[in-house]
Amino acid sequence: MFADQLWIERATSEASFATGSADLSWQNALQQIQALARELREQQVHSVALYFDDAASFAMALLASIEANVTVYLPGNVAQTNRRWLEQTVDLYLSDQKIDDLMLPVMLDAAWPKPSPFDRPPLFQHNVDIFLQTSGSTGEPKIIRKDWQALCHEASTVAQLMPVAVKSNQSVVLGSVSTQHMYGLSFRVMLSLYLGLPIYRQRVQFPELLLLVSQSQKDVIWVSSPTLLHALQPAHDVAMVRSCVKAIISSGGLLQKECRTFLQRHICEDVIEIYGSTETAAIAYRMDEAHWQGLPSVVYQKVANGLEVQSLWCPQPQLLADAVEEHQHGFELLGRMDRIIKLADKRISLVEIENQLLKHAWIADVHLVQQPQGSHLAAWVALTSAGIQQWRQQGRKQVIQLLKNYLAVDTEKIALPRQWRFTTHLPRNAQHKLSQKDILHALLQPITEPIVLAETQVSIDEYHLSFQVPLDLIYFNGHFDQFHLVPGVIQLKWIMQFLQQWQWIEHQPKQIENLKFQHFLRPADVVTMQFKRDAIRQKITFLCISGEQKIASGRVVIDEQKEQQG
């Protein structure tokens, strides 16, 4: 655990504990932690659930729970299933977000007791149990038990990888990952606490925002998933942060070699990849080495069905279903065992094919699986802006053929995907994972509806909404195969569905007046729609705009007789 002397020194320190939406010193943070811990003891709380967007408030709530000897539960989200789980498990919900239907005592951070001068500085000597959830990407989330001492051991070991300048410069820790999961907990929170680094409160989830915040903070560490790092492109003004970023930590997936080279050349030389899981925490790291290096105190061995791991922070042997190849100096990750499959008696690495596709300028993200209803491969692909442009110019069939030709240079014919699904982004979670449900839906369900981005009821008689046209809309097939566009009849179908959803109509309208289609509606177009209802005249006007172009407009005449009968 952290030395008591460390907390005693910080109790009088004006150094920064947190920054972002509000600055906070270590002295003030520890006073707040002590006050909250006292409140938890007085209320005789034995277990709490923590759920925060604000990483600094999360860290204070966690430390107060340790100080008060209170068991901690970290739900991955606050969906209904987790809410019911928490209601049956914990005494109190600590958060910066209110949940209306949660049948559990709630203490929001705004209502925490006021800090006061120390009775004594908190020392966090209790070894409290901390329960996390796995991502649930391959099924139901599992509950994993950690403890405070294990988290401290991990933090002290990982801290040895950090450049010396990080600690001496008091680099601000910026994170794109949630503190509710192991990666965010270990690196946004525990590493910051161990090294005494300021925590940036908000998650930074977009490349442009990451660059702006880094420039404003002057001296930072990035804690990111590969998804965000892969999104950084030469078109971004990365020169603005060249002197600001002191280290980049990436975990949750493999960082592509081209991305690592780009980061080291243009942003920061110290790029540290971490390999681990919720069950094991951090296992290995990779910096300039070609192979993964086990962290000190980690013992691992290759077994028939994966990789067996033990460490100070994972004392019970854990088996990871990852295929590895051992080398003299470290090991190589080949992907999950279930990502190495057999087709026609040939071993196929899905990860290897994905890596090959990711080198293509049109591919932003990709996930390969064996087609759930067949023996061939299926590819779920997110296109870059260049890929979308080709999609609009050449059409689906030509893009697929060109990608197959590209793969065929280094890939056996049996391993070329036969089913392709395209989108603008893959819905990965904060741990860079895709859910099995989303994968199956993408591959097995035809896409017939627009992607609704925002919806606003301006008044009782006015709605605004925006949506994006899916790349793989089923209505592009056939007549619109080479030059994809949304037929006018489908646009009207969507309009009627929106009106029925808002209960403005129940039946087919009497007629459509003044209907005009003025420009094509094409794949990936983002559309704004305005609907206004004239209840007296029984008419609804609609206007569809993409960029500065008017796509469609008209008036829906309500069949009053049918509506009354209905």
List the helices and strands and how they pair.
Layout: H1 4-10, E1 16-19, E2 24-25, H2 26-42, E3 47-51, H3 55-67, E4 71-74, H4 80-89, E5 92-95, E6 106-108, E7 129-133, E8 143-147, H5 148-158, H6 164-168, E9 172-175, H7 182-195, E10 199-200, H8 207-217, E11 220-224, H9 226-231, E12 245-251, H10 257-266, E13 271-277, E14 281-286, E15 293-294, E16 299-303, E17 306-311, E18 314-320, E19 322-327, E20 330-336, E21 340-343, E22 346-349, H11 350-358, E23 363-370, E24 377-383, H12 385-394, H13 396-408, E25 419-423, H14 436-444, E26 451-459, E27 462-468, H15 488-501, E28 511-517, E29 526-534, E30 539-546, E31 549-557, H16 560-565
Parallel strand pairs: 1-10, 3-4, 3-5, 4-7, 5-6, 9-11, 11-12, 12-13, 24-25
Antiparallel strand pairs: 1-2, 7-8, 13-14, 14-15, 16-17, 17-18, 19-20, 21-22, 23-24, 26-27, 27-29, 28-31, 29-30, 30-31
Helix pairs in contact: 2-3, 3-7, 5-7, 12-13
Describe the structure.
It is built from 16 helices and 31 strands. It is α/β, with parallel strands linked by helices and 566 residues long. The protein has a 6-stranded mixed β-sheet with strand order 6-5-3-4-7-8. It has a 6-stranded mixed β-sheet with strand order 9-11-12-13-14-15, sandwiched between helices. Strands 26-27-29-30-31-28 form a 6-stranded antiparallel β-sheet, with no helix packed on it. Strand 3 (47-51), helix 3 and strand 4 form a beta-alpha-beta unit. The chain is globular, with a radius of gyration of 27 Å. The N and C termini lie far apart (69 Å).
